[in-house]
Amino acid sequence: MALTRHFKQTVVARVRREPAFGRHLLDEAATLLLNGEPAPARTILRDLVNATLGFESLAVETATPAKSLHRMLSARGNPGMEKLAAVFSALRRALGVRITVRVIKAA
């Protein structure tokens, strides 16, 4: 019998074991979103919610029903900017992250 587990369970376990990994995932989600790749960004955010706050706590923090949050962060979700900002803010606090934006001039 193979000793395997679902990829999402591995991500959740690693975020809980290594907080720096969670911070890197949040950074990656922001980078993907800013580079016009919202689908993988939503997937990463969903995994981070499962690994940190959970959807029920996130629902309380964002004043959004958990069911709506699940839909927003699904593969075909379409979160508005205000709700997406609230999700990032809640995750940022949960992971102890301060986000700064740097602009790098293209050569």
**Strand composition percent:** under 5%
Rg, please? 14 Å
What is the terminal separation in angstroms?
53 Å
Question: How is the main sheet built?
Answer: none
Number of helices: 6
What multimeric state do the chains show? single chain
Low-confidence stretches: none
- Taken in chain order, the helices and strands follow as HHHHHH
* Broad shape: globular
Q: Say how many strands there are.
A: 0
Mean pLDDT: 91
Number of domains: 1
Give helix % range: 55-70%
Q: What structural category do the secondary elements indicate?
A: mainly alpha
Summarize the structure in words.
- It is a single chain.
- The protein is an all-alpha fold and 107 residues long.
- The chain has one domain (7-95).
- The protein has six helices and no strands.
- Helix 1 packs across helix 2, helix 2 (19-34) runs antiparallel to helix 3 and helix 4 (55-62) crosses helix 5 (66-72).
- It is globular and about 50 Å long.
In short:
By secondary structure, this protein is mostly helical. It is built from 6 helices and no strands.
Which keywords apply here?
mainly alpha, 107 residues, globular, 6 helices
Blueprint of the fold:
Blueprint lengths: L6 H11 L1 H16 L3 H14 L3 H8 L3 H7 L8 H15 L12
